[in-house]
Design a protein that fits this description.
The chain is of the alpha+beta class and 275 residues long. The protein has seven helices and twelve strands. The protein has one domain: Aminopeptidase, CATH 3.40.630. The N terminus and C terminus are likely disordered.
């Protein structure tokens, strides 16, 4: 992982404790070349617009998702005004280089739905609705994907969820449909063997893929975001759904916060012991 200087702060009424993590460097020159990353919640329309421009570059220009005509150069939708937007900024350039949007249980209740409910029947999760935070539109600028930006985003999501009294994260993780869903179906067939959620947490796709794929398919690729969630202890909620807005196949990710914290703690302890 590329070393980075990191600052975390949230300036909302329910403030999250500020902390700074300094890099382990041996000389001042090396420290000067490292990106100084800060993490916080968007505090105005300009922050949100910068996050939406990053989403457009990643989802539309890089991954080929369908662009929204509402605001050229920005990836945005109906849910954005109801969400809080977590952003990672390079303090040297001022650029937003990572983002993740968060929909709390309270806002989902006022809105009447979670974003994932457009694609999945969440009936089995109804008793947990007051404990959920939905994560979505997670992306990182390609230049920063080997930096601390990804772990920084996860730390922010975990802190946010805890301060909002949530116990579970849910969200849709996308797989390209450029091959008409062959890879998405194969990924599900492989992951279902080990990472399928317990029956009480499973969901049903409203528009399932036409085929479940060949579990013996010799070549299949798991997107990095799904890999990251699985490493944190996430389950997949069931078969993939087709997202017509993005023309992507989506898996419902279900992550108990306690599982993620335990995994993260073990990983941190292992790194400390190996140092």
């Amino acid at each position: 992982m590329r070393a980075s200087q990191v600052t975390v702060s949230f300036g909302l009424p329910q403030s999250i404790t500020e902390m700074a993590v300094l890099p382990d460097v041996r000389n001042e020159k090396a420290a000067q070349t490292m990106p100084r990353l800060s993490l916080g919640l968007a505090t105005g329309s300009s922050d949100i617009a910068a996050a939406q421009r990053l989403r457009h570059r990643v989802f539309v220009e890089e991954l080929g998702a369908r662009a929204t005509a509402r605001s050229p150069g920005h990836e945005c939708d109906f849910f954005d005004p109801w969400c809080e937007h977590l952003i990672v900024r390079d303090e040297t350039t001022g650029d937003v280089v990572g983002t993740n949007r968060l929909l709390t249980a309270g806002n989902a209740r006022r809105l009447g739905t979670y974003c994932a409910e457009r694609e999945f029947d969440l009936t089995r999760l109804r008793r947990l609705r007051h404990q959920l935070v939905e994560v979505g539109r997670a992306c990182i600028d390609p230049t920063y994907r080997n930096s601390a930006a990804g772990m920084l985003l996860w730390s922010g999501v975990a802190k946010f969820a805890r301060e909002r009294g949530a116990s579970y994260l849910i969200g849709c993780a996308s797989i390209s449909m450029a091959d008409r869903g062959a890879n998405a179906a194969a990924v599900y067939a492989q992951l279902a063997r080990r990472y399928l959620a317990p029956p009480e947490y499973r969901v049903v796709p409203r528009s399932p893929l036409a085929a479940l794929g060949d579990p013996l398919m010799p070549s299949w690729t798991i997107p990095p975001l799904i890999k990251a969630y699985l490493r944190l202890g996430a389950w997949i909620g069931g078969e993939p759904a087709w997202d017509p807005d993005f023309d992507m196949a989506d898996l419902l990710i279900f992550l108990p916060i306690t599982r993620a914290e335990e995994r993260h703690a073990r990983h941190f302890l292992h790194e400390r012991q190996a140092a």
